[in-house]
Amino acid sequence: MRISKARSVILASALVAAVLPSVAAQQAFANTTLEVWSLQQSEGPLKEAQAKAVRDFEAANNVKVNFTTYPYVELRDKLLLAASSNAAPDVMMLDQIWVAQYAGAGYIDPIDARMATSDIKGTDYFPGAWNSGFVKGKQYTVPFDVGVWGMLYYNQDMFAKAGIKKAPATWDELIAAARKLTIGTKQYGIGIFTGPGDATNCVYDAFVFSAGGTIVNSDGKTTGLGTPAAKSALNLLKTLTAFGPKGVGSRDEEQAFSLFTSKKAAMAIYGEWGQDTIKARDPNLNYGVALLPAPKGGKSVGTFGGFNLGISSKSTKKDLAWKFIQYASGAKKQLEITMLTPAHKASATTYLNEKRRFPETVFKQLNQALYRPLIANYPDFADAQRSMLTRVLSGSESVDAALKKGVPALNAILAKS
After folding, report:
1. What is the SS3 assignment for 3?
2. What pLDDT sits at residue 250?
3. Domain residue spans in the chain?
4. Closest by CA position to 402, among listed 226, 200, 221, 249
């Protein structure tokens, strides 16, 4: 991650203010070791920035921080095992979809009392990211970084050749554009996907949200996927499969995005981080980024991904853990050490202006995004939801048949949550 000269000055100034050691701070936690588990980074400069941030925190508080990183799947598995066996780190980095599970199991502490005397303000963060840290009215985490499914990528050269003057903003415009841009097997309008990960659910959820629907109703025990709004979103995705290559049932999100970056498809639905992929594959690609289309008269709403920070309920150093979370969640520090877009809106503005094309559009989609269901058994729910979607999009079941079977199955899972 390259840091501009101006940004370096800002970070340096903030660092002086943030980490000047005080006698009181150093005495309060002297010779304490804090365990922090985080997601492993592949980008060298980012790892270096995180390591420096840890050293600064150690110097300011006269403590030792064991900052351990793991790849996503390993972090998920090791963290859950450690938490259930009372061996969890003091500070946990949690995927948003893990928060309810950890809160329900008593693995993380609510932080409402700490928030009451903290300088951290919810209004400084993207609303959907902030609210992902609440479970049954209590706050358990503070957002760290965010990503959003999904934004609409479109090939501006293909659009111009087809006489399409602007990116589709409504579902009807999206279908019309996909149809016009499909030229046999030579060129496709859009590549829809399924795949084993949560991306399929995230895209579908976003279309449901944009139609005014819900994935899980407010009672937490029933799904909203049997409603007209959810059905219309599924019908939309099914319709769009006709404007891409065959094999949607075996195509994942990365393969679908490859259709776009290789100029085989004129449009793609992907996260805002896809701009990095385009830069690596074809920096000269003439593309645009637009909000996810919504029904006519509706509002585009994305689906959040990202990570939050929480405190282990078994930690014996909770005050220090909270101090670290406040340090890592601040606007200036997030700008320096987050993996994705900072969850803090002020930091995100700077980050997007430096790192992304169409920064205002990306910011708007991030600001108009909701989180996935905050339920303890979300993995089971997600698997059942994805299975239902795959049956429809692959053509093995009709929308009506899949919903008739899928909605009761999802409600049965929710009843156990």
Report:
1. coil
2. 92
3. 5-147+305-370, 149-303+374-415
4. 226
Q: Which of 320, 325, 315 is nearest to 86 (CA)?
A: 315
> What's the confidence (pLDDT) of residue 44?
64
Architecture of the domain spanning 5-147+305-370: 3-Layer(aba) Sandwich (3.40)
Structure tokens at 174: 């999206």
Long-range contacts of 376-381 (CB under 8 A, 24+ apart): 376/100, 376/101, 376/103, 376/104, 376/105, 376/417, 377/101, 377/413, 377/416, 377/417, 378/97, 378/100, 378/101, 379/97, 379/101, 380/413, 380/416, 381/216, 381/410, 381/413, 381/414, 381/417
Task: List residues bridging with 70 in a β-sheet.
Answer: 39
pLDDT at residue 48, as a whole number = 87
Retrieve residue 372's tokens. 């996935």
Q: State the pLDDT at residue 24.
A: 53
Q: Phi and psi for 49 in degrees, rounded to 5?
A: -65, -40
Domain 149-303+374-415 has what CATH class?
alpha beta
Query: Which tokens is 165 given?
Result: 């003057």
Query: What is the pTM for the complete model shown?
Result: 0.91
> Would 5-147+305-370 and 149-303+374-415 be classified into the same CATH topology?
yes
Q: What is the pLDDT of residue 288?
A: 98
Tell me how far CA of residue 241 lies from CA of 390, 396, 399, in angstroms: 12, 13, 13
DSSP 155-194: EHHHHHHHT--S---BHHHHHHHHHHH-BTTTBEEE----
The whole-number pLDDT of residue 276 equals 94
Indicate the pairing of strand 302-311 with strand 142-149: antiparallel
Low-confidence residues in the chain, pLDDT < 70? 1-27, 41-44
Share of the chain above pLDDT 70, in %: 92
